[in-house]
Design brief:
- It is a single chain.
- The chain is α+β, with helices and mostly antiparallel strands and 396 residues long.
- The protein is 20% helix and 20% strand.
- The protein contains 8 helices and 17 strands.
- The strands form 5 sheets. Strands 2-3-4-15-7-17-6 form a 7-stranded mixed sheet. A 3-stranded antiparallel sheet has the order 14-8-16.
- The longest helix has 17 residues, at 299-315.
- The relative contact order is 0.20.
Length: 396
């Protein structure tokens, strides 16, 4: 909520002349507002201390490939099971992001979970508000239905034992300001893409965060739309390339802070363009956080492609969606086809969230379709122009 925002008093001038009031008049306090300021909660009695961050000093064996069949393949094409209890559903923009009201994530049937997977695979990220009953066990149970849960090698896990497959996001008023350490474009990433089977369906629930207007938004970018933004020649070129995804920098950062690295860092080669098993759509599979080199081409060319793709993801507004969180809100995204980025500037508020992600298939490129082309045909939209050699006026 806005800081100290209260209902305005009703001035007497709004009453018609000669109006007679019955009973005592309750005068409402005047609105107060401080630009750029939001009230900070004290959290003296914090209900989620057991889900606070810890860094257990343990060592895990390397991951091995596990079977995976996408639950979205069993979903209804119109998501009818999921939406039968919905009171509202709307897209944030044509490319990415959908919000659903009236659905309780803690009580999904298998058929509804299948539809949810199919919807996330289609829309990239789906938002649910005020999911009070979706506690950490319900969050893990849904994640386990969708696949084998991922255990992160370096980031924090809850203090509560037995939750090593939960990733904790935690910042409070005592945390160090990290804005100077990263360029804004570098913050765009897909999670742990160096794994042999990087995650697919990923849920993040906000336990505590800044009030409305206090910052801490998260942004997502569609890699379907990133692929579709490229020229046919560039698409064809990238379809024949692979990239190296490295865990080394993440591990080095943890060691520098004196934190354990629970699994040895790896470097994995993945296709630069992948095909989604549910939609059949092609997407870029790239992020500047973990991709270090493009395989089989000169380093100068590789660095140029990395810079170019990073610019496409970070600056193409039509493939972005931005979500303003509220307490108990949940974002559910497909890590195969989305990059995401946190945003700074919310200090000194506490921001505490828990994330659960399941392993997907090993990334593969098997041909396929373009999201933009398929939807243009389905809805009769104008043909996309990719010839930038002409001249036009900019319209904002």
């Amino acid at each position: 909520m806005a800081p100290s925002l209260e209902e305005p008093s009703r001035p007497s001038s709004v009453l018609g002349q000669g109006t007679k009031l019955k009973g005592p008049v309750e005068m409402l306090p005047q609105q107060t507002y401080e630009p750029g300021y939001t009230v900070v909660d004290s959290h003296d009695q914090y209900e989620h201390d057991d889900l606070g961050p810890s860094f257990p000093n343990v060592h895990w064996e390397p991951l091995v490939e596990v079977p995976y069949r996408d639950k979205g393949l069993n979903g209804h094409p119109q998501f009818r099971n999921l939406l039968q209890s919905a009171t509202d559903i709307f897209d944030y923009n044509p490319k990415i992001g959908t919000e659903i009201h009236g659905v309780n994530l803690a009580k999904l049937t298998d058929a509804q979970a299948n539809d949810l997977a199919r919807l996330i695979a289609t829309r990239g990220v789906v938002f649910f508000r005020n999911q009070v009953g979706f506690d950490i066990e319900a969050q893990r149970k849904l994640g386990q239905y969708l696949g084998t849960l991922h255990k992160h090698a370096t980031t924090s896990v809850p203090r509560k034992p037995g939750l090593e497959d939960v990733h904790v996001v935690y910042t409070d008023g005592t945390s160090k300001d990290q804005r100077a350490f990263f360029t804004p474009t570098f913050l765009w990433h897909s999670d742990v893409t160096y794994e042999i089977q990087p995650p697919s369906y990923t849920s993040l629930k906000l336990l505590s965060g800044p009030p409305r207007g206090g910052g801490g938004d998260t942004l997502w970018a569609s890699q379907y739309a990133a692929y579709d933004s490229l020229s046919p020649s560039m698409q064809k070129y990238l379809e024949g390339l692979t990239a190296l995804h490295s865990a080394e920098m993440q591990a080095e950062g943890s060691r520098a802070l004196g934190r354990p690295v629970r699994r040895d860092p790896i470097i994995t080669e993945h296709p630069l363009i992948r095909t989604h098993p549910v939609t059949g759509w092609k997407s870029l599979f790239f992020n500047t956080g973990f991709v270090t080199k493009i395989v089989g081409i000169p380093r100068t060319e590789s660095d140029a492609i990395i810079r170019f793709l990073n610019e496409v993801i970070a600056t193409t507004q039509e493939l972005h969606v931005r979500f303003q969180w509220g307490k108990n809100d949940v974002a559910f995204w497909d890590n195969r086809i989305c990059n995401h980025s946190a945003s700074y500037g919310f200090a000194p508020h506490r921001r505490h969230a828990v994330r659960v992600a399941c392993h997907a298939e090993r990334p593969r490129f098997t041909g396929g379709k373009s999201q933009e082309e398929e939807l243009s045909i389905r809805y009769g939209l104008p043909k996309i122009n990719k010839d930038g050699s002409g001249q036009s006026n900019y319209n904002d």
